[in-house]
Amino acid sequence: MKYYLYNSLSNNGIKPSFLDEIETLENTEIKEIIDLDYQEFLSSLQSDDEIVIVGGDGTLNYFVNEIKDLDIQNNVYFRAAGTGNDFCNDIEENECKEVLINKYIKNLPTVYVKELEKKFINGVGYGIDGYCCEVADEIKRKTPNKKISYSGIAIKGLLFKYKNRKVYISVDGKTYEHDNVWLAPTMKGRYYGGGMIIAPNQDRFNDTVSVVVFKCKSKLKTLMIFPSIFKGEHIKKEKNVVIYTGKEITVRYEKPAALQIDGETVLDVLEYKVRA
Questions:
Q1: How far is CA 72 from the centre of its chain?
Q2: Which CATH superfamily is domain 2-106 in?
Q3: In 9, 151, 191, 233, which residue has its Cα 20 to 30 A from 198's Cα atom?
Q4: Is the Cβ–Cβ distance between 64 and 119 less than 8 Å?
């Protein structure tokens, strides 16, 4: 049996057309991913049963956190059907049509923020990236089917509403300070934010994560550098971009800001910690 775990909230609530075809196939069953008791579900599987996760990065994040304390013996696949597919870009499977992902969902890093403790598959964004998710959430609440441009939100935020901050970063016990910081994400993969190659040298199978600090006092220069993130070329700006790698990370802002975990927003965050 092949079980398709579908997130009906993914892709702005629009059901993928391929699921209609799957419903007609033998030895297949579609389940709502959020309604499952995973311990009970996994224990009921036969050795040759397979699982397909259908959704986007947020759906995949939900799944890995639901099964983080469980032992999965069956093959797990991912089929992209969301508005953001940074995971697929990172593993160089742009269409992600049932890609086997067992090796990708093991040994994931954990982020600790406020009362939350969560695994993440791509990255934790802190700064204007978290601000973008905060604004996008508000747009979705008001206009659920409206297409969202995260880069457009970022540019408007940079010009008008979002203020850069001083950031304190601890990497494996060593502390660093940076002024005028716009971004300070910690990454397991290379991609986030709907196609930005923020950490182009990060290896998903390494036992470390990358902290990327993008800093600049001038808004005009920041606007000039920002588009290069989509090609990973921002790292050439060594005066503005600093990257640390390590296993134990703490990032603290001088003032609270929104944070995103694989696209899920956490508001008013002063500090987060990551254990690779």
A1: 22
A2: Probable inorganic polyphosphate/atp-NAD kinase; domain 1 (3.40.50.10330)
A3: 9
A4: yes
How is the chain split into domains, by residue range? Answer: 2-106, 111-275
CA distance 32 to 49: 17
Binning pLDDT at 50, 70 and 90, where does residue 85 land?
confident
Q: Among candidates 209, 222, 217, 221, which has minimal Cα distance to 251? A: 209
Q: How far apart are CA 77 and CA 98, in angstroms?
A: 5
Residue 88 is which amino acid? C
Q: Where are the alpha helices (DSSP H) in the chain?
A: 18-22, 38-43, 57-66, 86-90, 128-142, 150-156, 219-225
Q: How far is the C-alpha of 71 from the C-alpha of 205, rounded, in Å?
A: 19
User: Minimal CA–CA distance to 245: which of 214, 215, 203?
Assistant: 203
One fold for 2-106 and 111-275? no
CA 222 to chain centroid: 23
Residue with tokens 């990497």: 171
Instruction: Please say whether the beta carbons of 60 and 90 come within 8 A.
Output: no
Strand pairing partners for 30?
4
DSSP structural state of residue 230: G
* C-alpha span between 125 and 133 (Å, rounded): 9
- The tens digit of pLDDT for each residue in 139-195 reads 888 887 787 888 788 888 888 889 999 999 999 999 999 999 999 999 999 999 888
Q: What is the pLDDT of residue 219?
A: 93
**Is domain 111-275 classified as CATH 2.60.200.40?**
yes
Count of other CB atoms within 10 angstroms of residue 242: 17
The answer, yes or no, to whether residue 261 has pLDDT greater than 70, is yes
197 and 213 in contact (C-beta within 8 Å)?
no
pTM for the full predicted model: 0.91
